[in-house]
From TrEMBL:
It comes from Ilumatobacter coccineus (strain NBRC 103263 / KCTC 29153 / YM16-304). NCBIfam families: argC. GO terms for cellular component: cytoplasm. This is N-acetyl-gamma-glutamyl-phosphate reductase. It is an enzyme of class 1 (oxidoreductase). The gene is argC. Gene3D superfamilies: Dihydrodipicolinate Reductase, domain 2, NAD(P)-binding Rossmann-like Domain. GO terms for molecular function: N-acetyl-gamma-glutamyl-phosphate reductase activity; NAD binding; NADP+ binding.
Length: 342
């Protein structure tokens, strides 16, 4: 295990995932932060935009992105919009030890999904083929030494952790899986929109992205099953609760479902298999994921659930966990399994 200092930059540090990365790396024993970029905020102090970060970074100032200035670093996180990440990554992959991209630019192995779900053609097929999907619970071996890591979408992390062990064990059919997620508003990023204005969030629950949400192909890729995915926005800042329904295979039972979960997550530092349904508050601010599954004999349906914090395990915490694996560090460094509750 490496003990040296990891010289690190966060590109897009002024966004919500960037701010969460700043929060986490402040407590990382190996990371030395050398740059936090945010073009529209360049010259402003980090603590002025995010007062919660002031004590950790009293003098840190956002800078403009400059690829040359990043050359030779050990680790660069990209917390940018998808198309911006796609275009920027080729400038730095190979010039730094590891690039961890939080956008969807390098997640989908089938490039034909990009025009359909993201509205652009993928222009970097070689990097797309090289990128490792950054979910350590599924791809830990491939992550070690990776030059480019593409961390999952937040809904994808929750749905995959709930479903993958059951699909892999052959306990559920791999067609017609229903994924219903509720999500906090920070999943939509920092920019104010009509959707996240207070009057549309307060005392309201809305479904969005019906039938064509861009996480559908990503969930299908990682779970290995056809899914109908419907996310719902609820009035909270952070958190995702995935509730998934599947048709049981012939030899399915409640005991086998829980057994498959426990086997799959045996030794995993951040995933706990509960004895009952998980909740978002239990994992708030932590990199933990809580999962649970059972069989409803009456309706003949499997129900499987996962709760995460969308900004931590669902984005920046998961990205830091993947970076730790990629760089040969302690996988849990800088991360907590303890939620902020009550
Ligand atoms: N929020 C979440 O829960 C999750 C988000 N993600 C993904 O992570 C990425 C970042 O998300 P999030 O932090 O929420 O987004 P924000 O909108 O909060 O932040 C976006 C960041 O990107 C910068 N930026 C915006 N446009 C450009 C551009 N054209 N070129 C360079 N920089 C740009 C902004 O800088 P500035 O405005 O200061 O110039 C800001 O720092 C996205 O791809 C998102 O899909 C993934 C998982 C979960
Ligand atoms: C509340 C909200 O809007 N959430 C976002 C998911 C955020 C995420 O995971 O981002 P990627 O785009 O990087 O996959 C959404 O559903 O589009």
């Amino acid at each position: 295990m490496r003990e040296q200092t990891i010289r690190t930059a966060i590109v897009g540090a002024s966004g919500y995932t960037g701010a969460e990365l700043l929060r986490l790396v402040a407590n990382h024993p190996n990371i030395e932060l050398v740059a936090a970029t945010g073009d529209s905020m360049a010259g402003r102090r980090v603590g002025d935009l995010y007062p919660s970060l002031h004590t950790a970074y009293p003098d840190l100032v956002f800078t403009e992105f400059d690829a040359d200035a990043l050359s030779g670093l050990d680790l660069v996180f990209l917390g940018l919009p998808h198309a911006a990440s796609m275009e920027l990554a080729p400038q730095i992959v190979g010039e730094v030890g590891c690039v961890v991209d939080l956008s969807a630019a390098y997640r989908l192995s089938d490039a034909s999904h990009y025009p359909t779900f993201y509205g652009f053609e993928h222009t970097q097929p070689e990097l797309l083929a090289e990128a490792v999907f950054g979910l350590p619970e599924l791809h830990r071996d491939l992550l070690t030494g990776a030059r480019l890591v593409a961390t999952p979408g937040c809904h994808v992390t929750a749905a995959t952790l709930a479903l993958r062990p059951l699909v892999e064990a052959g306990l559920v059919e791999n067609t017609g899986v229903i994924v219903n997620n509720v999500t906090g508003i920070t999943g939509a990023g920092r920019t104010p929109t009509e959707t996240n204005v207070f009057t549309n969030i307060d005392s309201n629950v809305v479904a969005y992205g019906l039938l064509h949400h861009r996480h559908t192909p990503e969930i299908e890729q990682e779970v290995g099953a056809q899914v109908l995915f419907t996310p719902h926005l609820v009035p909270m800042s952070r958190g995702i609760l995935a509730t998934c329904y599947a048709t049981p295979a012939a030899d399915c039972s409640a005991e086998r479902l829980v057994g498959a979960m426990r086997t799959f997550y045996d030794g995993e530092p951040f995933v706990s298999v509960l004895d009952g349904p998980p909740a978002t508050k239990s994992v708030l601010g932590s990199n933990a994921a809580h999962v649970w599954a059972t069989l409803d004999e009456r309706t003949g349906r499997v129900i499987t659930m996962c709760s995460i914090d969308n900004l931590t395990k669902g984005a920046s915490g998961g990205a830091l966990q993947a970076a730790n694996v990629a760089l040969g560090l302690d996988e849990t460094a800088g991360l907590t399994m303890v939620g902020v509750a009550p």
